[in-house]
Amino acid sequence: MRSRLLQRLDAGIAAATQPLAADCLRCERAAYLARVGDFDQASRELAAVQQRHRSRPNAAVSAWLSLADALVSHYRDLGPQAHDKMKRAHAMSAAAGLQPLQALSAAWLAHLDYLRMDAPALARHAAEALKLAAEDHHGARARANLVVAQSYHEGGRLDRARPWYDRAHRHATAEGDDATLSAMMWNMASLRVAAARQAEACAVTGTDDSGRTASDHALLSAESTAQFDALFGVTSLGALQPILRAQVCTLLGQTDVALALYEEHLTAALGQGMATVEGSLRADRAWCRLRAGHHQGARDDAAAAETHLAAPGLPGDRAPGHSRLVQIHEALGDLDAARRHAQCAARAWQDHRADQALLVGALDREFAAAAPL
Description:
Number of helices: 17
Strand content: under 5%
Shape: elongated
Distance between the termini: 29 Å
Number of strands: 0
Largest sheet: none
Radius of gyration: 21 Å
Helix content: over 70%
């Protein structure tokens, strides 16, 4: 099914009477193509626009080129270079007084800040986007609202996240932006998985996203996201969907299904930006192999997981891996290793809860007194 946003961009390019306006729309089109995974076409379109303006650069076209190039980099493999490219688009649009583009680039900077867990920066950039964007600038408002929603959700405050999710959905629907709707579904599913893993490891009860209920919801969310992406041809970061499902199946005890998914998709997922959580993913696969009776494979994966968990990273990425290694070493009879990972897990979960509190605090300072738009 063809996106309404893509149809509108194609119509705008065909109807444009000014070459500069047409090329800005071509950059916006390339940015959308990158978000749905058509990197080759996106790169070709950007190269053609860049070539036309090489001798006489235009501020608006240059800012659009930088923004679109940032999204190609980001959606190809979640590469860190996307942040610098987006900062350049933001700076150029601000210097040229291009307020709509400044709002959009600020919203995307907030998204990239979220992935870096830079709470003050993401709150500041999301607030800037919402301040600058007109009410009908649905692209900027959808992305900024989504960042605030997923940040509150990441912080364990789904109650505060819900109105922001609602507004993100409204703006993305008005824009006809299926890529953003897909991202919203993916984010909600992955954050439900994270909450379920935390609940399992920390024996959290009495919350909306705890235990088996959270895992069931996460599985439904993951399957719905995969079906939506198939309908609209979203292929960017395609290995992340089956890995998300593998994580849910592991939580639900469906380790045979999870193992098959890990075996088929883990390598691709690590190349698409999941290397930061490699330790936890390998720990999950070790558990699945152990449940299948593959003890040597489980030991090998557990050893690899421990190596990756020792590398610098966010505590929320490390904590589930250490918790899973406790189970594995207990099952293998290595109680000293189990106790060591239990201590690592306790420290990591404590640090993660502190990070959650910092994230919610940064958001509250920017947004608690304001209704999201």
